[in-house]
Amino acid sequence: MKITDVRTILTCPKQNYLFIKIMTEDPEIYGIGDASMNGREKAVEDLTLEYLRPMLIGMDTDRIEEIWQLIYRGTYWRGGNIMMSALCGIDMALWDIKGKIAGLPLYSLLGGKVRDKVLCYSHVLGKTNEEKIEKAASFVQEKGLKVIRLRAGLPSANGTLNADGIQNTPKVEDWDPEFWADDMINYFIKIRQVVGDKVGIIYDLHERFSPERAIYIMRKLEPYNPFFIEDPIAPDCFESLKTVREHTNVPIAFGELYKSRWECLPGITNRWLDFIRCDLIRIGGITEARKIGAIAETYDVKTAWHGPNDVSPITHAVNWHLNVSAYNFGIQEDGTVDDTVKEVVKGGPVYKDGYLTMEDKPGIGCDVDEEAAKKYPYKRAYIPVCKRPSDNSLCDW
Fold this sequence. Notes:
This protein is an alpha/beta fold. It has helices spanning 41-56, 64-73, 81-102, 106-109, 129-143, 181-195, 211-221, 238-246, 261-269, 286-298, 313-324, 339-344, 370-374; strands at 3-11, 17-24, 30-34, 118-123, 147-151, 172-174, 200-204, 228-230, 252-254, 275-276, 302-303, 332-333, 345-346, 350-352, 355-357, 367-368, 385-387, 394-395. 37% of the residues lie in helices and 17% in strands.
């Protein structure tokens, strides 16, 4: 089956999403992929249409590995986030086509199910710690969540979506990593007291701390049994992760900012992390995720793929297919989206009692309503930044 066209759908149903649609010789068979890159969506679209589309037209949709390698290696300079996001959208769309031609859901192409549903966790968000503590209790009691996720900092990701209009500069959050660590520790302890000992608590430090501050926080939290600590430090220095691992026995989840299996290797092969949690869009899609997952299984590292609500239900669906077919699955970020997004994207995992399930459909099991997408035009937006209120200097968000 030959590729006849590569199209993009850039839309903003409260959040910018970039979808890639690959057309084939059979007008009834096409593939949908997610290439969303929060804060740089237009750059990914321009790369896809100007450089990748002409190269792909006429190629065989079955040759997914060859196409992946052509895009990754064909630039000579290895792909950064823009390239890998475009590659992901294309890769997902090709796997979607393969499943539709075979008449099988994606998980079947990956070897079939080893579980029927996927353990997930949800974010506890709010404008104050007090508000979040109250929400944590209701999440456990009313939604039946078995694992919840907290995040260091205020307002803890509230307001980072871009429905407020076109932005010309990033939003700024106050953050002082040197002096706010104790507040973050006390917040976790209060949540543990509210939800009890049987609920798993994930704490996302969001790369906001130095190794020394991260170690201080994690050792203080050891008696309160975190499910895992997510991204305690920035990923730039491999030795920093080694230092953190050597000084605490709290489980570590890492890899949200990684772009390839080569970046994952030191943490996995040295067992500096317990959960690998790459974002499928950042690593180039399903083809690379399978390889990273296989390497991780070899070293008894579990998967916990990145899945917040700035990736679409399409990526959440792909995460689900990978999770039900992987022996070393750990847990999945549920990435719940609202009805506006569901108007544009049809399909995706469904939450119930702490788990995600999906209906069997050929391919990924999602589609995009292009007419609905047109109702929500793209709005330029940025990932926020953090600054210390004491001296107005920039620090990691």
